[in-house]
Design a protein that fits this description.
Layout lengths: L1 H29 L16 H43 L5 H43 L8 E3 L3 E4 L10 H12 L5 E4 L3 H6 L7 E3 L6 H13 L3 E4 L11 E4 L9
Antiparallel strand pairs: 1-2, 2-5, 3-4, 4-6, 5-6
Helix pairs in contact: 2-3, 4-6
Amino acid sequence: MLAEVLKTRYLIAVTALFPVAIMLILFAGSRGTLRLPWGKSSAPLEPSSSETLAKMRESLAQDRRQLAQLETEQSTLRAEVIRQRRLLQEGGIAKEQVQQIEQAFVAALKRVHAMRDTVTETDIAITEAILGEKVLRMPALPIGGFSQTAELTRFNGPFKWSIAEAPRVERFFSQTFGRRLPVTALGQSATHNRLGFDHRDSIDIGLHPDSGEGQALINYLRKSGIPFLAFRGAVPGTATGPHIHVGRPSGRLAQ
């Protein structure tokens, strides 16, 4: 009888501990694929990530050249619109002809804006990837901890942040400055996928941290306890990719 009771208790204990063992195994395995963003890591940038970064820099250079061409085209069309409107007033051409050049100008303007957005997003993502690797190697910040260097500012606010809280930041900015928050990346983007960074609960805002608007936003985030990183640029003394990253640092995506 006693043997049967002990056997039953043994089976119950094994059954209860089995899910715990599975969770421990999964946790141990996941630690090799996802680094904690506030922790310290000595692992170098993976070769594949370095190659991706090099390709993106090359792509960024090409996009900037294309942007310059599009801006030249837009400027030429704008001058032509002005010229043809003057001719229309003098009765030298038909209204339909002016409308055609106006439509071409509007289309060129849209292409310029789209390319500017692409250049800005890629520039910021590259800066975040370069400095993000440094962040992953830095000592962990305690809750409420603040750190500032020439390159970046970190704040580990206690607020339980998620992408769902983005409207409160947008609301503050629009009410303060009367314009929309210049968001360059809301959550995960194709660019972050290419770089291998988890950006699902983060926002990138195209403001220089030292500008008036940037300082106002940083002060608001600190007072609200919202975690952020403020990037001044990938290379000290340059204006490459300055922005404010709202949310926890972007850890590496699990492979």
